[in-house]
Specification:
440 residues; globular
C-alpha cells in the first residue's frame, strides 16, 4: 500500500476504524430486491414494523429503556447513522476517524424479527426452498445497497458483503460480483452453530467459497454476534447468556478453519476476527498449539487417535498460521490490554470504533485513543490505527493523508495521557473506557 514508508513521519494519525456498521432503512431495501420478491417483502416489512412497535411497548415498561440511550431499533435517535452518507462522514470526521470498514447492521429482507444482520440466517421448522431463496435474495439486496453506499466515498469505505451457506455456488458467484463492484472489505463469514440448518464451517462443502475469496484477494471476516445459537426466549436470562458467550461462539471459527486445513490449502487467504477482544488470543493459541502437538506427536494418546489424521496435513502450528494469515479487529483495545497487544503482535491488531453502536467510542474517540494508546509508542500506534488496516483492506494512504491532516488527532495528542476523571460518564459504556478496564 502506497505511503506506508512515510506515514510514521506524518504529524497526524490516519485513523481507520476496522469495525463500523451500516445498512439501509427497512423499506429502502425493496428497491434492491428482484421484483418477484416484492409482494413477499411487503408482508415481511409490515411484520417487522409491528414487532418494533411491540418492542417499544416492552421497553416503555422498563426502568431504563434501551431506546433512551439510542440502541438499535429507534429510528429517531439512531438509524440515520446507518445510511446517511453525508451525516455519517461528518460525525466520523468530528470524531477523528476518516476511513472505515463497514459491516452490516440493519435487518436485510426476510430476516426474522428481532435478529441482527450478523446472525446466521434464521432457522425455520420446515426449511422450505422458498425460505432459502428469500433469505438469500435479502442478503444480495443488502450487498447491492452496500455497493451504492460505498460508491459515495469509495476511498474511505471498505464494504464487507454477505454470502449464504445454503447456496455455495451462489455464494461463489456473489464473491465474483463483489470483487467487480468495489466491495474490498471482503466476505462476512456466517456462523453455523448447533441447531443451524447448515453444515459447520469445517465442512469440505465450503471449499469453493474459500477458493473464490483467495482467488479474488478478498479477506474473510468473522464478527462477534454472527455465530451464536438460539438462546431461547427465557427473558431476561437468555439475553444475559448471549452477552456472556457471544465472543466465544465467534472465536471458535478460528480453529474450525485451521484444523480443517483451510489455511493450509490457501496460504494467501487473510482471516479477520472482529470485536471479540484481544485478551483471549495468547491463551487460545497456546492451547491450540498444545493440542496440535499432542495430536501430531503423541503415539498413543487420545489426542492423536481423535486428531491425528486432521493435523497430519497441517505443515504449520496454529500460532504459525495465525502469524501468517490472521488478524484481530480489536474493538475495543482496552488500556489493560496494551501489554497483551504486544504479546499478540501489534502488527496483528486493527483498532475499531464500532460506530454507530451504543457501546462504540463515538463521540469520544479522541479520549478513548488517548486513554489506551498513550501507553504505547508511536510506531505501535501507527501500526494499529493505520498500517495494518490499510494493508488488509487496501486503503490508499496517499489519498487519506490530506483528510487526516484536517480531521484526525495528531500523534502528540494521542500520545498525551488523559486522566480517567476527564472521561465523560456517557462514554464509559464503551468497553475501552469502562472503569473496570483501566490500569491502576
Amino acid at each position: 500500500m502506497s505511503g506506508h514508508n512515510i506515514e510514521h513521519h506524518s504529524k497526524h494519525h490516519i485513523v481507520i476504524s476496522a469495525d463500523t456498521h451500516c445498512g439501509a432503512d427497512l423499506w429502502d431495501y425493496k428497491n434492491y430486491l428482484e421484483s418477484k420478491y416484492h409482494d413477499a417483502f411487503d408482508e415481511w416489512a409490515k411484520g417487522i414494523e409491528a414487532d418494533l412497535e411491540r418492542r417499544k411497548e416492552l421497553y416503555a415498561t422498563m426502568d431504563r429503556s434501551p431506546l433512551e440511550v439510542g440502541v438499535d431499533g429507534d429510528p429517531d435517535k439512531y438509524s440515520y447513522r446507518n445510511n446517511s452518507s453525508a451525516q455519517r462522514l461528518a460525525e466520523q470526521e468530528a470524531d477523528g476517524v476518516i476511513a472505515a470498514v463497514l459491516f452490516p447492521n440493519t435487518q436485510p429482507p426476510f430476516a426474522p424479527a428481532a435478529s441482527t444482520a450478523l446472525e446466521a440466517p434464521g432457522y425455520a421448522d420446515d426449511y422450505e426452498q422458498h425460505w432459502y431463496e428469500q433469505r438469500w435474495a435479502g442478503l444480495r439486496a443488502h450487498n447491492r445497497w452496500l455497493a451504492d453506499f460505498v460508491a459515495e466515498a469509495p476511498q474511505r469505505r471498505a464494504g464487507v458483503f454477505q454470502i449464504f451457506l445454503g447456496d455455495v455456488e451462489g455464494s461463489v458467484a456473489e464473491i465474483e460480483w463483489a470483487a467487480n463492484n468495489g466491495l474490498r472489505g471482503g466476505v462476512l463469514v456466517p456462523g453455523a452453530p448447533p441447531g443451524s440448518p447448515f453444515e459447520p464451517l469445517y465442512s469440505p462443502t465450503y471449499e469453493p467459497i474459500w477458493e473464490a475469496a483467495a482467488a479474488n484477494q478478498l479477506p474473510l471476516n468473522h464478527h462477534s454476534g454472527g455465530a451464536t445459537p438460539d438462546f431461547g426466549s427465557y427473558f431476561p436470562s437468555s439475553l444475559a447468556m448471549f452477552m456472556l458467550e457471544v465472543t466465544w461462539w465467534t472465536q471458535r471459527a478460528l480453529w474450525h478453519l485451521m484444523f480443517s486445513g483451510v489455511f493450509e490449502r490457501h496460504p494467501e487467504l487473510t482471516y479477520v476476527t472482529t470485536e471479540t477482544g484481544t485478551a483471549w488470543v495468547p491463551e487460545t493459541l497456546a492451547k491450540l498449539d498444545s493440542f496440535h502437538y499432542r495430536m501430531k506427536h503423541s503415539e498413543f494418546g487420545s489426542e492423536s487417535i481423535f486428531g491425528g489424521m486432521a493435523v497430519a496435513k497441517m505443515s504449520l502450528t496454529p500460532s504459525e498460521y495465525f502469524e501468517r494469515q490472521c488478524y484481530i479487529g480489536a474493538s475495543f483495545l482496552r488500556p489493560t490490554e496494551t501489554e497483551i497487544a504486544r504479546q499478540v503482535g501489534v502488527h496483528k491488531l486493527m483498532w475499531g470504533s464500532d460506530y454507530p453502536h451504543i457501546e462504540g467510542s463515538y463521540p469520544h474517540t479522541r479520549e478513548h485513543l488517548r486513554l489506551t494508546f498513550s501507553r504505547l509508542n508511536i510506531e505501535e500506534t501507527v501500526t494499529m490505527l493505520t498500517d495494518t488496516a490499510a494493508n488488509v483492506y487496501n486503503f490508499d494512504l496517499d489519498y487519506l493523508r490530506p483528510l487526516a491532516e484536517q480531521h484526525c488527532p495528531t500523534k502528540a495528542e494521542v500520545a498525551t495521557p488523559i486522566d480517567y476523571s476527564e472521561i465523560p460518564d456517557r462514554a464509559k459504556g464503551c468497553p475501552g473506557m469502562n472503569p473496570i478496564n483501566q490500569v491502576a
